[in-house]
Amino acid sequence: MLRQAPRLLAAVNPSLPTVINLLLQPPTPPSPHRLLAFLHHAPTDMDARHLLDGPPRRTRASFIVRALRDEAPLDGEAVADLHCSSIKSGAVLDPPVRTSLLAAYARSRGADVRAALALFHEAADPDLILWNAAVGTLARRCHLADAVALFQQMTAVLGTFDSTTVVVMLSGASRAGDLELGMAIHAAAVKRGLDTELNLCNALVDMYAKCGHFCASETVFWSMPCWDTTSWNSMIGGSTFNGLSELSALYFRDMALLAIQADEVTLSSVLSASSRAEDLFSFGKSVLVCVIKRGYEYTSSCSVTNSLITFYSELGFPEDAEKVFLRIFNRNLVSWNAMIKGLVENEKVREALVIFQKMTSEFQPDLATLVTVISGCADQGLLCEGKEIHGYIVRKGLLNEKSCTGNSLLGLYMKCDDSSSVNLLFRTMPIRDLISWNTMISGHSRDDTLRVEAQAMFKELLSEGLSCTLTTILAVIPSCSRPEDLGFGKAVHSFILKNGFASGVSVVNALMHMHICCGDSLAAFVLLGCIMPVSDIISWNTVIVGCVHNALPGDALEAFRFMHSTLRVNPDSITLVSVLSACGTLKLQSLGKSIHCMSLKHLLACNLRVKNALLTMYFRFADTESAELIFYSLGDRNLCSWNCMISGFAQNTEGWRALQFYQKMEDFAPNEMFTVGIICACTQLGDLRHGKSIHGRVVKSDLQNNVFVSASLVDMYSNCGRLNSAVKVFESSAEKSIACWNSMISALGFHGHGLRSIELFCKMIQSGIKATRSTFIALLSACSHSGLTDERWKYYHLMSEKFGITPTAEHHVCMVDMLGRADRLQDAHKFVESLPSKEAHGVWGALLSACSYMSELKMGESIAKHLLCLEPENSGYYVTISNLYAYQDMSCGAVQVRGILQDKGLMKPRGHSIVG
Fold this sequence. Notes:
Blueprint: H1 6-10, H2 16-24, H3 32-37, H4 48-51, H5 57-67, H6 76-89, H7 95-107, H8 113-121, H9 128-140, H10 144-158, H11 163-176, H12 179-191, H13 198-210, H14 214-222, H15 229-241, H16 245-257, H17 264-275, H18 281-293, H19 303-314, H20 318-327, H21 333-345, H22 349-359, H23 367-380, H24 383-396, H25 403-415, H26 419-428, H27 434-445, H28 451-463, H29 470-476, H30 486-498, H31 505-517, H32 521-530, H33 537-549, H34 553-565, H35 573-586, H36 589-601, H37 608-620, H38 624-633, H39 639-651, H40 655-664, H41 672-685, H42 688-700, H43 707-719, H44 723-732, H45 738-750, H46 754-766, H47 773-785, H48 789-801, H49 809-821, H50 825-833, H51 837-840, H52 844-853, H53 857-870, H54 875-887, H55 891-903
């Protein structure tokens, strides 16, 4: 032994002779921790040879065995020191000492398994007890393959094994979740006739439960000839482990009926079960009474009180959990972790940080503690506090232990949008695993500005030879969210097929979403067809939601019809929100009402998201009464509900109703969407007084730098005749979005400053902002209001030739309006005739209006006949031609047209005045 373990001897403290002297003394032996405490106070000049003189070896061996009998966990260093002491004293030659040392190696933290194996192999003729101790050491230290090999060697050498061997091997299989090994050991035990022993049966119950085969666990339990507390604990703990909390409570009740005494393990397990199901809260309170009655709140073991902390925290009572925590007089690491985790899960992260700070003065936080507090900081966006914890981790050198700490920090910086810190941390992490790569790729994929970096990291991951998992694939697919990403998306799709990931429904769902976002909806439907037999509601929601978000409402409704009528898949709230939006977009009022009925039938109409979607849909139908009825029927309202009402009334030119709702709203702080809606209402009404008041609230709420709010303020001041105020808002905007530029160009044109609009447009292009269709509508309108005919033709052609924007009906209407104002109706007529029939359909109305205000009767009559053939129910055309007759003093014709309008039952749109 002296030759084979030089490292252990070299590690012995110079003051070890004092420990040996203590070992030679006859009084009652202290625990190993008390022995090692003397190492720091022993004299260094003492002669070790005299210390070894004393009682015979057997007395010293008995002393060591009794010292190691302590069942508390030991430090690996303490066991190694006692091992060396036994070598120097010669006590290691006694089998009981060797067995006790092996058992101590098994339960110690950070012990050297190789030293334990060396200790076993030095035995000349190990008996069954020593073999069991060696196998148990490997099994408990999670070296299951080595334990199996040693077990096989044992059966070959001794030709036998006992129930202790089986229990040890079953515990190893239980820790590893190795059901196949556990069943093989069970079969061996049955063959040897050992399966009737109580301890072995308890181990079998625990093994099957921990390996996820709970039915087998119950079979073994009910076939046992008798039960003890451990038997019931195995069933209660196994039920909880397998997510069967209610069953765990039933086993506890049966145990109480049989008058079997519950211990701390029982109560801890059943409290854990009660915390996982809200239905068991009352049951958990009754268990709490049992805990208090038996005095387990104040025992030296913290297992019950720790479970109580978790129980209260899981059910949303962190204050009660903290009361229990403060009453614990001997808190251990689990107590602190349970309290911190409970506060974080109840969104009391700052309170958790206070507990964490107190903890560091008593305990060294473990990885679980650090991961919990970092995750809490990430969820609450507490970047500064997260960086302080990062500094603590670096000071303590904890970043070098395992990758989970670094991965949690990556998640923190990702959620707090600190891209520079996350990239620096990732490149300098001492331990980086696949989770680190997945975290980086996932975070970059969900940030639209970092999509390219996510794709580059995925390529780098593959180039380093690391193997991808399903998580990696699901992390990189969201980076393909635009048409220009389709090539990379197809490459990832090919990689998935090549490496066998395509069988998972989740991967196919992600691929369908990717293809829809990239503009290839046909490929998405092909993929859906491939998984049709195993498709779930998530698959259909992926297609339906993707189509709605990518302006394909018709495809979304077709998918919904097939899902509901052919496959009989019931929709959920996500499905209904999307299809209601599609109905509103397509103005399909009858279908929308049918889906409203379906939501009532499936009891989904009470869902707040569905109710808000119904509000939006009815407003798109211009059915403000139904929308208001639904709003007042809401049991709960959120800010989105108020947003729907205000923006809905504004969109239906009922700005005064929007202002009424704005004044009624309470208990909610307006966000940017709400603010934009109410500003649009003021714009519509030309209500400068309310607009200025809302602008003041915008500044007070620090929303003035929001790009949508600033654009809507520019529109509001422009429509209210305050161009200077609109210019000030525009120039003071910290970030000018394309919407803000468009609003300012439109405002200048609206006020007759067409040349300034053109100058601003040129300045926008020089600043790197890309023009949109709306930009050119604003620019062409500005030219029209200022009579800049040549400039208008110039930018109309540049729109497609230089900027690659295909003109739409709105652009054509602007051109017709310009030619009409310039009294060039023949040119306007030729322009409309030159357009494709589909595009010209909406432009003829603009030409009719131009004929009306230019009193061009002949062309107006011709155009009116054409339009009324296309849209005989459009009352606006009748009104326009009637006005044209009136301008020409042809009152008979005007009256005749008005009579036709009344005969058809059509109503002229009501006018309203904002004066008064």
